[in-house]
Amino acid sequence: MSNLPLLKIVSLMCGTSAVDSFRDELAVGEFNGQSMLAIREGENSPFSPMRLDALVMLLVEEGSADIQIDYAPFKVEAQSFVTLMPTHMIQLMRIDACLKGKMLIVSRDFLDRFRTGIKNGSVANYMEARKNPITPLGKSEIEVVHQGIERVREKVKIKGHYYQREALQTAVVALCIDLANIFVHHRGTLSTPSLSRKEELFEQFLQLLHTHCREHHGVAFYASQLCISPQYLSMLLREQTGKSANKWIDDAVLMEAKMLLKTPQLSVQQVAEQLHFSDQSTFGKFFKKHIGLSPLEFRRS
After folding, report:
1. pTM over 0.85
2. 234, CA 20 to 30 Å: which among 2, 45, 216, 266?
């Protein structure tokens, strides 16, 4: 499931909840843990790894969940706001049955079609949420976000409006301005925080891993791209995250493997080829060593 379209993301995020949508570009609805748990298994499970091709915003009202975002673990609590950016790789690890809240999903095409006049242009850049995907909210902040999402829903429901897209764009921008204001109060500034050299290298490593993990499985490649030694990269990652460079790379490859194995039209041989393993046997041994199941057993499970 690579670069999932909006309506596919909607079905994975909210199960059977009613959704109001504008074409295949924007959707507003509700999500709940019970519905998501009911479709835990199979290709359409929200627990399958997925790569987003949309901006996903979640107002979590009740319950909690554990999620991996770009291979890093995060805990989602009640009364928080979650921002999942286009191109994020995500996987739900655990959710409460009582999890529920509001969601707004905006396709990349919708985002790219307009400029907000804020900062560098796009809503996604303005919010600068890639590094801060989860924000706890106070009661008044929850009400502001709730009202903003509902305003977008109202614009979706207005059928026959000649300027419906423009009305939706205005509502989305208004919501994001309110969110940015909330983020300022929580983070102190809209600008990217000053990073140490080690933190900058870690961020650059994550970007490289996101782009190249399918074809490059060795520490040396990433170290060379960062112009540092493999030993220094491993030391840096252990210091910053507690995980070795090899562990980061293996986890990224395994996430990609799980995602590809849940794509029924791909054979295990094709998955091995897409992940640049020398042959299917080598891929199978790698996968079973880390997951405890062969690729076929994982697919059947």
Report:
1. no
2. 2
Task: Report the DSSP beta bridge partners of residue 31.
Answer: 101
Instruction: Name the CATH superfamily housing domain 197-300.
Output: Homeodomain-like (1.10.10.60)
Residue 190 CB neighbour total at 10 angstroms: 14
CATH 3.40.50.2300 fits 6-187, yes or no: no
Q: What is the pLDDT of residues 145-174, one digit of tens each?
A: 999 999 999 999 988 888 898 899 999 999
Sheet holding 80-84, edge to edge: 19-22, 26-32, 100-107, 54-62, 80-84, 134-136
Coil, helix or strand at residue 42: coil
Work out the average pLDDT over 165-189.
85
Task: Write the single-letter amino acid at 46.
Answer: P
Q: What is the DSSP code (8-state) at residue 276?
A: T
**In the predicted structure, residue 13 carries a pLDDT above the cut 80:** no
The token duo for 114 is 């307009």
125 versus 77: the higher-pLDDT residue is 77
Please report, rounded to a whole number, the percentage of residues in the chain having pLDDT higher than 70: 82
What backbone torsions phi and psi does residue 184 show, to the nearest 5 degrees?
-60, -45
- In angstroms, rounded to a whole number, what is the distance separating the alpha carbons of residues 97 and 62? 10
- Is residue 173 within 8 Å of 152, Cβ to Cβ? no
Nearest 5 degrees, angle CA 89-CA 92-CA 93?
125
Please name every residue paired with 100 in a beta bridge, in sequence order, or none if there are none.
32, 62
Contact 56, 7 (CB under 8 A): no
**Domain definitions of the chain by residue range:** 6-187, 197-300
Among 241, 242, 202, 239, which residue's Cα sits nearest to residue 222?
202
List pLDDT tens digits, range 220-239.
Answer: 999 999 999 999 999 999 88
